[in-house]
Amino acid sequence: MYASASPSPSISNRTIDLRSDTVTQPSAGMRAAMAAADVGDDVYGEDPTVLQLENRAADLFGKEAAVLMPSGTQSNLAALLSHCARGEEVIVGDRYHAFKYEAGGASALGGIVACPLPTNETGGLDAGQVAAAIKPDDSHFAVTRLLSLENTVSGYVQSLESIDALCAIARTHGLSLHLDGARVWNAAAALGESLARIAEPFDTVSACLSKGLGAPAGTVLVGHRDLIAKARRARKMLGGGMRQAGLLAACGLYALDHNYPRLSEDHENAAAFAGGLTGIDALNVEAGPTNMVFLAPRESDRLPLVDHLAGLGIRIGAPAEKIRVVFHHDVSREDVVRAIEGVQSYYDAA
Ligand SMILES: *Cc1c(COP(=O)(O)O)cnc(C)c1O
């Protein structure tokens, strides 16, 4: 069952961490930018590097204003708090981060009612179901206030057409629109579209600097000036007002200059990894159009495969029906080859 690690020129001892794109280490260039940053007290609005990043983000997304948040979770929560009052409702995908993976914050801290809708295999919502979920003005119902979408979803890009269709329905009914664009950078790279075009139908967009962009922390929330002012107050309420945050903003600015333009390399590495595994009958491989690949081994192979790779210094997602493998800034093409060889060596020995 278990192959021993066969010595091969491509095998080094360095661990290849493919669990997530959040595991990246700040590069030497990013650390230098951080060390050189001019900083001030950002709660006083006096950190020049934060202001520079916020202006840059607002421009990139074609919005009036931006606010730097410590995390994507706080950014989504601050956005939802800015859109919805207590007892008001957000329509959201049942597999979307803002609904499923944020500890119920919108409900616990905002009294916001979630109306989760089935999310299809590639992350989309059904337009008819969205329309049907918008409540009429009737005192029995929560007031439906917001449609919250996500792009990318598990590495899958949501097309402009599908997003535009969902947003048009929401607008017809007077809803506000939020995009959880934690990995919107990958969507933009894959679509060959500008961030501004992707952001266009939305009132607010949240975009993480700490994933594919390789910064140690930080998310930008962009949108209309009045909404961003509300979100800034929510950030303070949630404990996210940071002082000399220019150290983090400098990483974000560095990432926009140096790491955003190279994201398609991660997409190519994901495709190369998936392509290298096509010959294995007992392994189903799903590759989305961005930086994630999902391995669907037979049930009895799930844990042994993950363990086998760990023994070779290759970490992938937790054993499950679909095991996530994520490509990022710190993964080279040589690492991709090593990962393919690692999976193949498991099946050769099986
Ligand atoms: C990671 C992620 C977030 C939250 O970001 P954190 O910085 O980890 O809090 C939100 N939405 C999506 C889709 C994500 O992938």
Structure, briefly:
The protein is of the alpha/beta class. Helices cover about 40% and strands about 15% of the residues.
What would you say this structure looks like, in words?
The protein is an alpha/beta fold and 350 residues long. The chain has 14 helices and twelve strands. It has helices spanning 28-36, 48-61, 72-83, 97-100, 105-110, 127-133, 160-172, 184-191, 195-199, 225-237, 246-258, 263-275, 302-311, 333-349; strands spanning 16-17, 65-69, 88-93, 113-117, 143-150, 176-180, 204-208, 219-223, 283-287, 292-297, 314-315, 323-326. The strands form three sheets. It has a seven-stranded mixed sheet, with helices on both faces. A three-stranded antiparallel sheet has the order 9-10-12, covered by helices on one side. It has a two-stranded parallel sheet with strand order 1-11. Helix 1 crosses helix 11 (246-258), helix 2 runs parallel beside helix 11 (246-258) and helix 3 crosses helix 10 (225-237). The chain is globular, with a radius of gyration of 21 Å. The protein starts with 15 loop residues before the first strand and ends with a helix. Residues 71-73, 76, 97, 150, 180, 182, 208, 210, 219 line the site of pyridoxal-5'-phosphate (PLP).
